[in-house]
Amino acid sequence: MTGPITAGVDGTDESLAALAWAAREAVRRDLALRVVHAWRFQPDSAPDVADEDTQRRWVRDAVERAVGTVAERHPGLAVTTDVEEGRPAETLLAAAADAELLVLGSRGHGAVVGFLLGSVGRQVLAEAARPVVLVRAGDRPSAEAAGHEVVVGQHGDPEDSAPALRFAFETAAARGAGVRAVRAWTLPPVFAYSPASLKLLDEAGGPEPFEKKALSEAVAPWRERFPDVHVVEHVEMGSAGQVLLSVSGRAQLMVVGRRAHRTAAGALLGSVAHGVLHHADCPVAVVPHE
After folding, report:
1. Domain with 23 in it: what CATH number?
2. Angle at 68 (CA atoms; ends 64, 72), nearest 5 degrees
3. What is the per-residue pLDDT for 199?
4. Matching InterPro entries, A to Z (predicted)?
5. What is the rounded distance in angstroms from the CA atom of residue 122 to the CA atom of residue 134?
6. Are residues 284 and 160 located together in one domain of the fold?
7. What's the domain count of the chain?
8. How confident is the model at residue 97, as a pLDDT?
9. CA–CA gap between residue 273 and residue 245 (Å, rounded)
């Protein structure tokens, strides 16, 4: 069963932009919208209001006002609201588990581009079981205009990036947009070549034809499943993060896969997702590997 589009809100401009983005996406996909706010009683937040029920009512009223604005813009959209008491990261991770995707807001990194990730955002992005989309304050529907693409990074074998490709094609199909599938490559050190890999490169006619063939094979099943989605296969020499960012100006959404690295301090995002999140000038979807 398909879950709702879920938006995490906290009353900031960033989360309201995320809520607006989530509502538009729910309408496109004909899905319900779930709005989640994680709340904890703060007795010292206001000297004259230490009453827990009063604070809870204020929070609910603020969330309902935000939801009311969305409902006015999208009168046919089914919306549910959950104000849950608990830690934000844990609450959002639980909400993501039942969602088609989770949408969060983030402050812009600098005056123009990128995202600033707090500890909650980093944990959710690294551990969520479902795709997470990060939206900056100031994001506008006009950025989703026709001609702008859904850009997705592809790497490795077809199964390595299948979840990200599927998400990109589904999103593009819902928007009537095209997909730009990007595969970056670099020349490995000489000692990294094995006889088997040298044979494959030789059969392909060299490194770049080999990479183009690999991308075509990865994209082929999604072309077949979504025949109406226009696809551009983009192969370029360079680091994956740099190549993706070089085409982000034409993107209405950037999609990257996530293979989180476990450390003693918890899960960490990979370098490509980390770099794109910090420098992209469009919303970014981080899709976990299955």
Report:
1. 3.40.50.620
2. 170
3. 54
4. Rossmann-like_a/b/a_fold (IPR014729), Universal_stress_UspA (IPR006015), UspA (IPR006016)
5. 11
6. yes
7. 2
8. 92
9. 11
pLDDT tens figures, 45-64 = 555 555 777 777 877 888 88
Give the chain's mean pLDDT: 82
Q: How far apart, in whole angstroms, are the C-alpha atoms of residue 245 and residue 265? A: 28
Q: pTM for this one? A: 0.85
Q: Which segments of the chain does DSSP mark as H helices, in order?
A: 13-29, 52-73, 88-97, 119-127, 162-175, 195-204, 207-225, 240-246, 271-279
Whether the CA torsion 117, 121, 177, 162 is positive or negative: it is positive
Among candidate residues 74, 75, 121, the one with its CA nearest the CA of residue 102: 121
Same domain, 112 and 172: no
The per-residue pLDDT for range 251-269, each reduced to its tens digit, is: 899 999 987 555 444 455 6
Domain co-membership, 154 together with 281: yes
Residue 25 in tokens = 């996406």
Confidence of residue 94 (pLDDT cuts 50, 70, 90): very high
Report how far residue 266's alpha carbon sits from residue 7's, in angstroms, rounded to the nearest whole number. Answer: 24
Q: C-alpha dihedral over 231, 236, 238, 242, to 10 degrees? A: -40
Distance CA 5, CA 28 (A): 11
Q: Do 78 and 156 sit in the same domain of this protein? A: no
CATH of the domain at 212: 3.40.50.12370
* Phi, psi of 10, rounded to the nearest 5 degrees: -140, 15
Measure the CA–CA gap between 72 and 50, rounded to whole angstroms.
33
Both structure tokens of 170: 């589904």
Domain of residue 206, residue span: 149-288
Look up residue 104 and give its two tokens: 């969060």
Cα gap 273→260, rounded to integer Å: 10
Counting every residue written for the chain, the total comes to 290
Q: Are residue 167 and residue 274 in the same domain, yes or no?
A: yes
